[in-house]
Sequence to fold (794 residues):
Amino acid sequence: MSRKCIIGQSGGPTVVINATLAGVIQGALKADYEKIYGMINGIDGLLDEKMVDLSSFKDQKNLFKLIHTPAMYLGSCRYKIFEKDQSIKQRIITILNKYEITDFFYIGGNDSMDTIEKLSTYAKICNCPINFIGIPKTIDNDLMNIDYTPGYPSACHYVATSLCEIAFDSVIYPIKSVTIVEIMGRDAGWLTASAQLVNEVYPDSIDLIYMPENIFDENDFLEQIKDKLKKKDHCIIAVSEGIRDQYGMCVSLDSGIQKDAFGHLSNNGCSNYLKKLIGDHLGCKVRAIQLSTLQRCAAHLASYIDIENALRIGSYAINCALDKRTGIMVTISKNRNEFLLSHVDIHKVANHVKPFPLEWIDEKNKKIKKEYIDYVVPLIYKSGQIELPQYLQLNER
Amino acid sequence: MSRKCIIGQSGGPTVVINATLAGVIQGALKADYEKIYGMINGIDGLLDEKMVDLSSFKDQKNLFKLIHTPAMYLGSCRYKIFEKDQSIKQRIITILNKYEITDFFYIGGNDSMDTIEKLSTYAKICNCPINFIGIPKTIDNDLMNIDYTPGYPSACHYVATSLCEIAFDSVIYPIKSVTIVEIMGRDAGWLTASAQLVNEVYPDSIDLIYMPENIFDENDFLEQIKDKLKKKDHCIIAVSEGIRDQYGMCVSLDSGIQKDAFGHLSNNGCSNYLKKLIGDHLGCKVRAIQLSTLQRCAAHLASYIDIENALRIGSYAINCALDKRTGIMVTISKNRNEFLLSHVDIHKVANHVKPFPLEWIDEKNKKIKKEYIDYVVPLIYKSGQIELPQYLQLNER
Fold:
């Protein structure tokens, strides 16, 4: 039987999500798929039949460009399929049948895996033979049953490199100052933890690391800073956007916190709140830096291991479809120096969140332990060594 | 007579200010200087005799590291010498005489050249034979009588690369949205102008460019955005931090604008003000991104031409000292494919500001003209071509 597939991208971008798209296209071309469609803006666009033909990627030059293009070539959406809304599921299946789609691929994070779960379950109920396959990506690194999510290593590389440069910039004036760098991560501190990479090369350059895994206490926070500023002039803090107080409330200037379609909190920057807090209580110079969208789209600092695996994971998804797998997510695991591809039942992934291991956090010193470094370095650096630039520090200052 | 020199760094950092320091050290080592001192934290540290011996840089390995180190190896200060305060000038000369300094080098921007002017003038009056030589650096590119200031090309490279990635990130959702990117520049839009580099490779990806050279009008600003959003979903705006209204007031959320020692205004972000303005009047999604300190310290995106010239300009300053020049600033000018070094009377530089040429601004379309591109490209790209990454765009979106 001739095969026709459709590929979508969903959620927030990463630097390697287009490499995964390229991997699926490459795999489909190799397996002689009759048609390779792309959804424009994920499910959102599919419902309006906004699709493109991706066969033009037979031209290898464009495929290479696609691999290295940041953000999302096909555009994204944050479309939530509600459990009880059968009509939407039916409409999607009807559209897919109209185009004789045999395989449906969705590249995304937790919310996209929720979509794969809903559609594959519905398809089974109504005996529809379309394969629904999830392909992971997220800079948050919070998907279950996978060693790491493509996109995360590149984001870590950006965060560590930028923090290193910010640390060098922060110490130039001989005055007491605090620099707060706010890093993405609503529920888990995976990305913020990469700040510790800087300390491995330049010891004690990042003074305090705060993540959502631990309760944020304002008084303790101020005491920690006071303590640091007794010993040195400059205190540099890496903090997850999603830190919460003992009542589970986000630490933010914005009292009117909004929720998106998936019910996730969206706040307007804990760093600005913390800046005001420090200014009010300690009276020293404070700078708040948000790495903003750059941490998820800085293609010029992509991890090559990340790109390679993202590409492989895309091709592997085609193998899964040819094996008639449905209701699965493709996975990746590290075994010695190899990354192995496999797949897992989508129910074991969707709507679960993998927290950062508490035992990897040195909560007393607000640092991250060596176990994390051993975990993350092989995802970013081929040499197995942290390759932050070799800068020179004037120790006497 | 044996020579002893002292070198200081002052003002805000650039990615190549340490390359210039390395150039002075290299030149001094070659000319067999008996002593090479570094001031810790500029004039501020010199007054407390906080100095380091830089002879250790005979080790080439450390010199190479120094060339590529961001921020300021010796630390900085923002110390203003007041015209009438003879006692400070006298104290500085006394300290320099104590260490038998023959040549004083100060690497910095406009404020540092003010320091060189004050000290060289005072030295002449009291027949002190020390040579006072200014060496330019500033990402602001606003020094007079020089073709460009070292540090500026690298900052442009960072701004253009980051804006390009932000532009790709901004268009992924099919909703009306505005992205404001705030770029450094209190008085001149030199750095913000580099946003136009993105448009040269990806036409119309940066929609509007606002600089301090033109009066900022809120109503016109909102109309421009409305107009853009009629034609496309996403509007991306590059804006200088220093834009001002018709009364010369900074556009900022912060009503309590403060001044630094040199009387410069310091505001807390026009992008947050503009975000609120757009949110209140147009009601679409708005994101405000401040490139913050990264635009002046992102060594990983340095321009190699910038590094090379910064190094050369440092060595050349030593030649000027050997020729017994004082009260000068070293300059650089572009002649066909060559960069020529020379020097200029410090009075022609200090406390003047080179504005961005009004004739290079397409004020009607809020864009920058080709004349600027022809000026800036040879400072950044050796090939003479803009080397932004070759990404792939889905034109149908």
Notes: Chain A has two domains: 2-141+300-346, 150-296+353-378. The mean pLDDT of chain A is 93. Chain A is about 35% helix and 20% strand.
